[in-house]
Design a protein that fits this description.
about 180 residues, mainly beta, AOC barrel-like, 8 strands
Length: about 180
């Protein structure tokens, strides 16, 4: 005869196993380099925004991660306050691992000039990443800023920016 306590223990253990298998939590260290092209718009004498598109490549320390050599494409905006030497950014990204396996994410970050820390939030995916969710830490650093000559009378300047990003403990959940 099965007691009420043994049924409760069975349901608790079954729920834990089902919950763990449903999470399929992945944790990896992901690095990447990127180049962004866009427009620099002055907003007053000490502030500006950059609106553009960043493209990059993902790497793993051991070269064996699921996202290794994946392509990163982001639409992004960065607001810079040169008086207080701070910036904040946000954007939407697609990581293309294969033609059929993609991850869609959004990011928000803030920090000192040329450096941003924040969150990378998974909002969907295709193929083996269908149903992906979760949020992970994000850090980026800018190395090179190249401004192209300003056109007479224009308020914006074409600009190229390059740098790297780190998802130090890249985690996500998949069904």
């Amino acid at each position: 005869m099965i007691s009420r306590n043994s049924v409760g223990v069975f349901l608790l253990v079954f729920g834990l196993i089902l919950g763990m298998s449903n999470l399929a939590l992945a944790e990896e260290r992901v690095l990447g380099s990127w180049i962004a092209k866009g427009k620099y718009f002055p907003i007053g004498e000490e502030n500006f925004t950059f609106h553009g598109e960043a493209n990059g490549v993902l790497h793993h320390n051991d070269g064996k991660g699921k996202l290794d050599a994946g392509k990163l494409h982001c639409a992004m905006s960065i607001y810079v306050d040169t008086k207080v030497k701070r910036e904040n950014g946000n954007g939407s990204c697609t990581i293309i691992v294969t033609e059929y396996d993609r991850i869609y994410a959004e990011f928000k970050c803030a920090g000192p000039l040329l450096e941003c820390k924040g969150k990378f939030d998974h909002v969907g995916g295709t193929g083996k990443f269908r149903g992906i969710s979760g949020e992970t830490d994000l850090r980026w650093k800018v190395h090179v800023i190249k401004s192209h000559p300003k056109v007479d009378g224009a308020d914006s300047v074409d600009q190229s920016i390059s740098g790297y990003f780190v998802l130090p403990n890249y985690t996500y959940k998949s069904p």
